[in-house]
């Protein structure tokens, strides 16, 4: 396994971890918002918590783009 393959594998692991962190953060915030609306009288709906997924999605896409760029340069 050469150096570029290790970098690709590391980036894949980071993207995988980002996906699990995204699910955890969104699920926690959805539950919090659900009970805030139900008991505390919050005005925002629980679906607002999906906004927290946007930075994670961007980070995962950056990881995918980096992998594509590295693989393209590996062929050269």
Describe the structure.
There is one protein chain. With 76 residues, the protein is mainly alpha-helical. Helix content is 79%, strand content 0%. The mean pLDDT is 92.
Question: Structural class, please?
Answer: mainly alpha
Which parts are unreliable, with pLDDT below 50 for 5 consecutive residues or more? Answer: none
Strands, total number: 0
**So how many helices?**
2
Gyration radius (Cα, Å) is 18 Å
Average pLDDT, all residues = 92
**Describe the biggest sheet?**
none
Distance between the termini: 17 Å
As a percent range, the share of helical residues equals over 70%
The portion of residues forming beta strands comes to under 5%
* Pattern of helices and strands: HH
The gross shape turns out to be rod-shaped
Summarize the structure.
The protein is an all-alpha fold and 76 residues long. The protein has helices at residues 3-40, 54-75.
Quickly list its features.
mainly alpha, 2 helices, 76 residues, 0% strand
Q: What is the strand and helix layout of this fold?
A:
Layout: H1 3-40, H2 54-75
């Amino acid at each position: 396994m050469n150096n570029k393959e290790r970098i690709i594998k590391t980036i894949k692991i980071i993207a995988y971890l980002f996906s699990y962190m995204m699910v955890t953060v969104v699920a926690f915030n959805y539950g919090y918002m659900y009970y805030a609306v139900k008991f505390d009288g919050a005005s925002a709906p629980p679906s607002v918590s999906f906004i927290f997924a946007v930075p994670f999605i961007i980070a995962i896409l950056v990881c995918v783009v980096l992998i594509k760029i590295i693989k393209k340069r590996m062929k050269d």
